[in-house]
Design brief:
Keywords: Signal. This is Glycosyl hydrolase family 95 catalytic domain-containing protein. It comes from Amycolatopsis heterodermiae. By secondary structure, this protein is α+β, with helices and mostly antiparallel strands. It has four domains: 31-54 and 654-765, Immunoglobulin-like, CATH 2.60.40; 55-298, putative glycoside hydrolase family protein from bacillus halodurans (Beta-galactosidase, Chain A, domain 5), CATH 2.70.98; 308-653, Glycosyltransferase (Alpha/alpha barrel), CATH 1.50.10; 773-906, Galactose-binding domain-like (Jelly Rolls, Sandwich), CATH 2.60.120. It is built from 17 helices and 53 strands. It has a nine-stranded antiparallel beta sheet. A hairpin with a 2-residue loop joins strand 14 (195-200) and strand 15 (203-208). The radius of gyration is 28 Å and the shape is globular. The relative contact order is 0.13.
Length: 907
Amino acid sequence: MLTTTVRRLSTTFAVAALAGAVLTAPVAVAAPGDAAFSSSAGRLDVDYAGYLAKHDIVYNRPNTNPAYGLTVGNGRTGAMAWQQNGLTMQVSNVDASQQTAFGAGLVNLATTPAMDSGYSTYQQRLSLYDGTLTTKYDSNRTVTVMGQPGSEVMGIHVDDTRGGVSAVTLELSLWDVANLGNSGDVPDITTWRQVSSYADASGAGFSRGQTDAQKFGYTLAATVEGANYSASVVNNSRVRLTITPTSSYTVWFTASTRLNAPGNNSVTQAKNALSAVKSAGYQSTYTAYRNWWHNFWSKSFVQYGGLGGDADYLENVYYLSTYLIAAGGYGNYPYHFINGVFRATGDQTKWSNAYWYWNQRDVYNSFLASNHVDLMNTFNNLYSRNYAALKSYTQTRYGVDGLWVPETMGWDGNARGTVNSDYTKNILSTGYEAAYNMYLQYRYTNDDSYLRNVAYPFIRETAKFYSRMLSVDSNGKYYMANSNAHETYWNVPNAITDLAAVRSIFPIAIQVSQQLGADASLRPEWQRVLDNLVAYPQQNGAYQPHQLPLSQTRNGENVASELIWPYNVTGIGAGDYQTALNTWNSRPFPYGNVWANDAVQAARLGLGDQAFTGMKRMLQQYQNYPNGFTSNTNGVFEYHGVNLSAMNEALLQSYNDKIRVFPAAPANSSFVGKFTLLAKNGFLVSSEREANETKYVGLRSQWGATARVVNPWSGQQVRVRRTSDNTTVLTTTAAEFEFPTASGATYVVERTAKPLTSYATTRLTGSPNQGAKALSGTASTLGLNASGGGLVNDTDVSYDGNWFPTTNRGYGDYNDDTHHSTVVGATATYSFTGTGIQYLSERNGDMGTVDVYLDNALQATVDLHADGARQVQQVVWQKSGLASGQHTFRIVNRSTSVGMIDALRVT
């Protein structure tokens, strides 16, 4: 996690203008009498094209705000698009620079007359299933942004049948690099301030970082297929392609990196890559690109629906988040938790000097269950490739033979971001997390070579490090004398993170060394440590972050809850479950930041309602842009990852080698859950739940491991049936049971009294989304409707001089806070056209009352005071059913306590 305790302060409302009524997510329709499991395929039968279309992000009016730009990527290169002098995109590549500190630049396509002039209908659609961003103006203009899979090339295909188009230009440009700061851990910032350009018969481009000592740097270049063009250099940071207008053409552009180029020559690589894709042609490349995404989505499936539409909204974010990360997750380096390949900030980045493990795990850990272990491998590779460097530095720093991983680690294993910070310099547990995730990669892939050559060496050296860092007291008890309990408690004895790391990784080290026939001499020491390790610190029936008394709090982490997730040493069915539950219930910083994993831990504890409300609360606090992004500068992608992991854990768990389906389903009977997800030991697990009833459990065994299943129907008789020949392999009423499987075989666990065959068969599909969605009681929206409505921009509200931005007073726990006042009579006025309005605010103990007026008539006095914990943003007053036309809304502060305006929403 980041070395800061400063809370996010916001200065503006999120702009998400929606036409007419703000749509809620479509409510899942329950069908408790059918089932979608395909016995032949061993998974749910899903029309992915139809189903994912309901989660497309749709803008029904042009968006001119870069922060709200929709996103498209091919796994390495990503583009964030908005309407500015035509189509403008900020482009970045995950391998372009150290920790993607510096984006590639801007791509702008403009026509005369403008593409967005003289039209009556408009729609921009991010198709998750196809991975494309398509903008349509009437029936005579379509712009499709897509990419070439497995490359660094993206494309803009234009179909423009208008008459009278006199000019088309494509410009590549760069931000002012004169004052570029060194936020990316680069050895020589000068090379990133130097820009060179070219223009010739092959196209045009510019380059940066060409002499970067670490072989980073890139060339942003473009060419055209299907139309004649001329290339020119406008200046060092701007090149242009002047295109002869035609009815159909494709602009190909690339952010080619030195890192991935032969001889580290990104200019030659850019020219070759553009030539190759141009030769392949748009149609062939477009088909290959869509097939790549179709194959990606086919690996798993999740439905998390109902609950008045809110669960459907969370599901929409699940698929959008998966797309965002995968669109930049296939480079040589990880998708950085705050930079990724999508941002609208030029070269202005934050936390770019390294990868924080705490933050990166939020982004990546869900991809094991969603059957995209190759994405997790990208994250793990950052650490495994630096094995030798980390071993060497551990000897230098600690004088021990073992392996320590810096919490804040550079791309090459450097620890500068860790050892120069009191927050991180004494964190010892990061190496355990890296080693454990490598072990999980093995458990989800059965890759023996990976276990032997990559995961086990890291596990062994991490265990050796802890063996040498622990102290022994006079009673022979092992303890940790001094370390950080992550960033929050510095230089404390018996940090619970270290004790949990030992209790997790030492049994794995013993078991794997036996499995591989390696390091027999180390096992007795590891076992001796396990047998004599001090107990976790406790107080009042809950685990404590370190040995009492508690030290000064330096950050807002719930350290003791780490045992639940991701350390995975406790959870449902564990002997210390009640203590773990008490620990979570008494955690000091509930949902304290954009990286907070409370909802994941709630799911791991089987708290279905809390997991649901936790996922919703994270979006409520942070997802305040209609493209799914946030204005929070402390993080960008972590809350996306939290949503992914929490939902997976609510539907399927196998962390302790036992398969549990719907362990944390919401109690509401309207909840509809269906999934095909991957469990440890290679089981592709499917199940469906409607009206509080789990229908069956389907298991596809990928390599013939023994299956261990927790009975979803406590006390009822179940049978395990092999679907290939309908043989019953087990009948039992046990709470837990196991059975052998054959590689490639499919099994169904079903109630004897209500087998799978009693359900009608169905195929899961959906209808394409056509507008914006909203999460009830929050400012979170996805998409834009045609005109009017939506969340109101701060600048549209008229505040008198007694209102102040929250940044001036120190508010900002929730990033959509905008103005406050402690002056009686302070007035804020807004005029709008619509049939309703909602007033959103948080409530807290220091707040007072405000009067609400509509069309100059007093409507209500709204009490914003709330005892106890701060209540996050909610609708505190609303009015609907107004006559169409213009209305005036006014808020008047009525006490010297705080009056707060978070957001207004027109409906």
